[in-house]
Amino acid sequence: MGIIIKSEREIAIMRQAGKILAAVLEELKASxxxxxxxxxxDEIAAxxxxxxxxxxxxxxxxxxxxxxxxxxxxxIVHGIPGETVMKEGDILSIDLGVIYEGFQADAAxxxxxxxxxxxxxxxxxxxxxxxxxxxxxxxxxxxLGDISAAxxxxxxxxxxxxxxxxxxxxxxxxxxEDPQIxxxxxxxxxxxxxxxxxxxxEPMLNKGDWHTRVGDDAWTVYxxxxxxxxxxxxxxxxxxxxxEVLTAISSSVDGKIGKEQREVYA
Length: 266
Ligand code: MG
Description:
By secondary structure, the protein is α+β, with helices and mostly antiparallel strands. The protein has helices spanning about 10-30, 40-50, 120-135, 145-155, 255-265; strands at about 55, 70, 75, 90-100, 105-110, 160, 170, 175-180, 200, 205, 210-215, 220-225, 230, 235-240, 245. The protein starts with 7 loop residues before the first helix and ends with a helix.
């Protein structure tokens, strides 16, 4: 199929989808607290997406039963919201996709539930940092492998491993388009990056080993060793000389990403 180049008009629609998604993610982040069930977040997501005239991408995707993925602690991605009660010190990945006027946006954040320890905080910051360096590496004229390599280098420099079986992806009319974007790789390899390409970059970093396992629900992905994992994702568009973050949100774990992205990329 190849990498689909989007027109300015198509990217303008994706920008709107991204803004809606970012606003809903902000609401979800602000809602997370100890004692809450993950399904309550799903209810907020469904309501807030609908209120903004969009549709949740994940609901019904290959039978996925919810509007968002909630992945706690050693869950990496694809956790199903339900009766699980979040407790102080947990970390929660919230992954959300929306469709607006036929185009998709996809983003994820990991947040602490109440106060989290230094160790979990460090993992979250490194994962968000890995996303940030991946975005910086996404430049017209560069190669796809530049993004993968930047993410891997940052993660490993901070002492974490990158999940290998799950990747970022092209995005547009479909949630998953070509190419797959691994969170590890070599600079200067892979397809040439061009203006109009739109990607969802999504590093998943583990405190321990990179191996994963899928749970009994056939969706939830866990770290094989039971240690913590974090996940951050943005939808971006390659412009003439840089990446524009279409799902930019105003707050971050370490207070940097929203501000920097607005200043540098928005
Ligand atoms: Mg994604």
